[in-house]
Please model this.
Amino acid sequence: MSVGLLLVTHDGVGSILLETACNMLGRCPVRAGSLAVALAADADEMRAVAARQVALLDDGDGVLVLTDMYGSTPSNIAASLARDGRVVVVAGVNLPMLVRVMNYPEETLGALADKAVSGGNRGILICNGPVDGAPETNPP
Model:
């Protein structure tokens, strides 16, 4: 058994992030899904869809739900899923966060939530110049 993963985001953000991460890794190492929440979506209806997806993804070890912008409709839908340690929700999903989670598919739900936060935080940098070791390029 392993932790399931659900991305609850605005429109197609989650599906694109999930597809990109799986392509980068060459496979999808966790049971994962995404839920696109359109701006005009009915929140109650989307909550029911999200709850069904969580139930499908949970094979006994729980589900980590990643959502985009805290306080938004997708985030509020995701937050409504959090319950008794079986579903943990982390807001602010980005590609470094998702890749970090997918690199540790054997971890527990709590450990994966911590990996998500650290991956997201460490993936945000101010880039003032070339990355160490990367060749410099001259602008056109």
Summary: The two ends are 52 Å apart (CA to CA). The mean pLDDT is 93. Residues 4-121 form a domain with the Rossmann fold fold (CATH 3.40.50.510). The CA atoms of residues 2 and 48 lie 23 Å apart.
